[in-house]
Amino acid sequence: MLGEKEARVFLLRLGFMSGRSDARFVRAGWPNLDIGDAFTAGTRLHTFSGVVRVETVFNTYDFRKKRFSAEFLWRDSVEAAEFSKTRLASEPVCWTQLGYASGYASEFFDTLIVYKEIECAAQGHSHCRVVGKPADGWGLNDPEVMLFRERIDVADDISTVPASRSSAARAASTSLSSLDRLILMPVRDRLDRLAATTLPVLITGAPGTGRGIAARYLHRGSAATATNLRRVVGMQVDLALCAELARPVKATRRAPQRETIVIDAVETIPADIQPHFARAVEESMAEGGPRILAIADDCQESEMPAFSTELHSVLSPLHVRMPPLAEREGERLALAHAMLQELAVRMGLEPPSFEAGAKKLIETQLWPGNLRQMRGVLIAVLNSLITGATISAAQIEIALARLAPNPRNSATGSGKSAIDPNQLLGSDGFSLNALEHSLYEIAMVQAQGNLSAAARMLGLTRAQLAYRIDNARRSK
Ligand SMILES: [Zn+2]
After folding, report:
1. Which domains, ranges and CATH numbers included, belong to the chain?
2. Which Pfam families does the entry link to (predicted)?
């Protein structure tokens, strides 16, 4: 009925959701079980359930580093057996099982793991053979990975919106990227609990902490009823909007329409409008009107000065606070890493890796400008990176200094000159080669990737610099 392509998506997704759900069940049911054992239980669950007998070819993983690589043989696959009753398949057909394996592993690694079936019993092989890797491991623009990102790994979206072509439906079924998953990690449980409610939620935090992502996540969670997301800046809230809230448009016969309205900078709602707005939100709640998600700057719960008392009591009962990066110790590198992957893909580059020094610098920075600052720094670094090069601490320092919002911020260390010879000589693992190489890199970054300009800065000719960069790279 669906056609082969959509049927495959349907079954992959069904399997993916079952796999994720079983993984959650195993983790919650046996919290003290070694994570490796809990993970490999997936293969046994698959066997017990009578779907397929799993035989491990190899299975190597490191949960902390999100490294994973596995190959399994599947024997007596029900999907392959069912298919081959009629004819020999031209392509592998164990779609549900493949989705299950991917979903189970993705839940454990908290990143998208994609399995591919490279041989299938339905094609006449004696068994099916599947290979699993993290999404990034399949390379850029892998069509199967893209399919998983767009259509399969959407377990967080409980939307019942059918696969229509409307932009609203597409928006509702957009999956949570690995970056967004990391950004929301500290508040994910809370958001999940709030997603089901239609009551207003107040999201506070410093700018750039991902408040908008949290709002979108809540919207998607309630997408079974809410189909449209509208953003309004507090300053723009007027009596017309209040009237619209208080008298919600009746659901059409076609489908229940429910809007989510995100009020950005809710503290900027004009003081004379605030009481009207508070009343309108209350009426809207009673009438099944739009859902209100309010975003406000970070403030102590006891003092929300810009809010009128009425507005405060309507909006603040359900409150989520996005922590700033300064409070996210131990997570900053993972965030930067996921952000780098995403940006590189968007900029059409092969994602580079961070050198050890850069990793340390990223983790020790407090990032007062939060994710926005981190994104700016990474874009600047990527923009000036030599193809195939790794990202050094010096490059991060330069971008930090260049993008520092004001000179006072250099007090945090980000604005200091990138190279201090005294400090360098005293530091572990110093080498003249490394220094030489980082000078070339700094020159390249400052010259925005222009080799001639970088050479001029260093008092070299273009050819000399090209030769030296090449040599430095080889001696590394
Ligand atoms: Zn198969």
Report:
1. 4-152 (3.30.1380), 167-323 (3.40.50.300), 327-475 (1.10.8.60)
2. AAA_lid_14, HTH_8, Sigma54_activ_2, V4R, XylR_N
